[in-house]
């Protein structure tokens, strides 16, 4: 019986160790890289200095978009959502990252701070960055519609549709990185986690391709308009000369 209990405890200890290693693979032994901490302290100082400015500037953007009538445009719904994402980054994730670095530099036992860093900071970083990517994709689509399909812009790009896109970007930003991290905590099989991560990578690559496509279409449309204007000016000049 004692042998079985020892074997069980050993398995649980091994499982928790592997899980901890999987959660925080980048800092398995943080004391190894504490010989030269100058760069780390400089990085912490930069993060703490830039946090208030990030919060302040994005707050000003949000207030300006809400208060000034000339800025009350449909497209600014997505811009405002993007500013909220950056505001949360400066108010939450950046201070948490800097605090985590300080705790590491102070040689706080890593097993105590790793779960907090993983569940709070890493989850929020991935969620906010994914939401930002989805919002950038929506903004690129909106700009493409405004430039290329400007005749039907008001009918196709409605305020409710843009609001729905902003909400969807936030929801998918939370859904995409959240489950694999919860699977890791719950001890799910690596195969399911890998499948979800592959799907996440595919969705992010698809967003990047879509952003590139939308802005390339905008470039072609603007170039086409410039050529038409040049041809019109040349035609008018030739007509006057005749």
Automatic annotation (TrEMBL):
Annotated PROSITE patterns: G_PROTEIN_RECEP_F1_2 (PS50262)
Domain of life: Eukaryota
GO terms of molecular function: G protein-coupled receptor activity
One Pfam family hit: 7tm_1
Major location (coarse): membrane
Compartment(s) where it occurs, according to its Swiss-Prot or TrEMBL record: Cell membrane
KW Methyltransferase (keyword) present: no
Keyword Transmembrane in record: yes
Gene3D superfamilies, sorted: Rhodopsin 7-helix transmembrane proteins (1.20.1070.10)
Keywords from the UniProt entry: Cell membrane, G-protein coupled receptor, Glycoprotein, Membrane, Receptor, Transducer, Transmembrane, Transmembrane helix
Residue intervals passing through the bilayer: 39-65, 77-96, 116-141, 162-187, 193-220
Occurrences of domain G-protein coupled receptors family 1 profile (ranges): 57-242
One GO location term (cellular component): plasma membrane
Annotated membrane topology: Multi-pass membrane protein
Designated name of the protein: G-protein coupled receptors family 1 profile domain-containing protein
């Amino acid at each position: 019986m004692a042998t079985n209990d020892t074997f069980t405890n050993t398995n649980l200890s091994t499982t928790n160790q592997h899980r901890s290693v999987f959660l925080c693979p980048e800092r398995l032994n943080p004391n190894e890289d504490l010989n030269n901490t100058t760069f780390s302290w400089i990085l912490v100082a930069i993060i703490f200095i830039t946090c208030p400015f990030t919060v302040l500037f994005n707050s000003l953007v949000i207030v300006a978009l809400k208060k000034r009538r000339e800025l009350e445009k449909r497209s600014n719904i997505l811009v405002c959502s993007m500013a909220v994402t950056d505001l949360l980054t400066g108010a939450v994730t950046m201070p948490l990252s800097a605090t985590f670095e300080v705790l590491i530099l102070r040689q706080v036992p890593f097993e105590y701070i790793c779960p907090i860093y993983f569940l709070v900071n890493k989850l929020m970083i991935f969620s906010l960055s994914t939401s930002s990517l989805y919002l950038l994709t929506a903004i690129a689509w909106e700009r493409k519609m405004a430039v290329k399909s400007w005749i039907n812009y008001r009918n196709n790009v409605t305020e409710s549709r843009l609001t729905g896109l902003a909400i969807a970007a936030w929801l998918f930003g939370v859904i995409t990185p959240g489950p694999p991290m919860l699977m890791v905590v719950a001890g799910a099989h690596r195969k399911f986690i890998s499948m979800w991560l592959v799907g996440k990578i595919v969705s992010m690559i698809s967003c990047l391709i879509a952003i590139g496509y939308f802005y390339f279409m905008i470039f072609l449309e603007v170039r086409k308009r410039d050529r038409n204007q040049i041809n019109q000016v040349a035609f008018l000049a030739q007509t006057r000369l005749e």
